[in-house]
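A reminder from the course coordinator: this example appears on the midterm review sheet, so study it carefully.

Given structure:
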């Protein structure tokens, strides 16, 4: 069964604290930051700038991690798992969250020579320094994340676009096409959308298509905003995208950015015009 990774709620805090306490157990004295966090309360941490994530399976919390952004670098600690695979799911969630925030580096501190250090090295983290502390010598570890970006399509993206859309990619092998954008995770193409001229100053946006593991992260909104910038700088006065079910969870965020639901489309007026919500 797969894990659901999500933000911890106040109601989750007691169960989450039990998972953390059980994971560190008799070694809690060697992790003063964990002991302090449990004493302060995980709910308090979540209210003071840290992102506390939980891994849930079958309705039970089986993993916890905390991460935060410090001067443009992501940091994580409190990693605890009560089921095989929960820790990996949480680390991946932290890395995705850091990417979504535009961060290129994630760091952590692990006991030198420990199983924890070995585990993170296998996941691509590299030692960059050592420091002595109350819990003994710690190794500072760092991972450079691939750059997640929405960019214009290139000739080399053609096969990946075909895989994402299920369509013949031949047209994209001829070179970059105006108004065609991909989501690039480093060298991997993970998403696709395109703008076409619908006439009369209207730009029609194709519903963004994403690989499964990139859904649910709000990236569709990011891609729509990139397309809107293209449309505005190319003289369109309006852009619209079909009100696909995949966009419904983002409705509030779309409206915050002036994409208003009008019938079966989300529509945004461009070129500095005043925007009003749909008539009711």
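Designed residues:
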């Amino acid at each position: 069964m797969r894990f659901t990774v999500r933000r911890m709620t106040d109601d989750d805090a007691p169960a989450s604290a039990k998972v953390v306490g059980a994971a560190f157990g008799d070694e809690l004295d060697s992790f003063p930051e964990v002991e302090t966090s449990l004493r302060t309360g995980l709910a308090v941490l979540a209210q003071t700038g840290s992102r506390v994530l939980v891994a849930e399976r079958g309705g039970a919390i089986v993993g916890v991690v905390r991460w935060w952004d410090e001067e443009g670098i992501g940091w994580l600690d409190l990693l605890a798992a009560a089921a095989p695979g929960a820790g990996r799911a949480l680390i991946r969630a932290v890395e995705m969250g850091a990417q979504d925030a535009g961060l290129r580096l994630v760091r952590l501190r692990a006991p030198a020579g420990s199983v924890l250090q070995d585990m993170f090295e296998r996941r691509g983290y590299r030692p960059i320094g050592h420091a002595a502390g109350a819990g003994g010598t710690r190794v500072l570890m760092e991972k450079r994340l691939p750059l997640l970006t929405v960019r214009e399509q290139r000739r080399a993206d053609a096969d990946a676009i075909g895989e994402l859309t299920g369509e013949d990619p031949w047209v994209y092998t001829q070179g970059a096409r105006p108004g065609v954008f991909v989501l690039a995770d480093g060298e991997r193409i993970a998403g696709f959308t395109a703008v076409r001229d619908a006439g009369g100053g209207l730009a029609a946006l194709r519903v963004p298509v994403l690989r499964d593991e990139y859904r649910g992260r709000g990236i569709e909104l990011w891609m729509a905003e990139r397309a809107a910038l293209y449309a505005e700088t190319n003289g369109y006065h309006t852009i619209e995208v079909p009100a696909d079910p995949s966009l419904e969870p983002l409705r509030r965020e779309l409206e915050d950015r002036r994409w208003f639901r009008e019938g079966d489309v989300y529509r945004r007026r461009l070129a500095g015009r005043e925007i009003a919500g749909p008539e009711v």
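Residues 86-100 form the longest helix (15 residues). Residues 272-280 have pLDDT under 50 and may be disordered.
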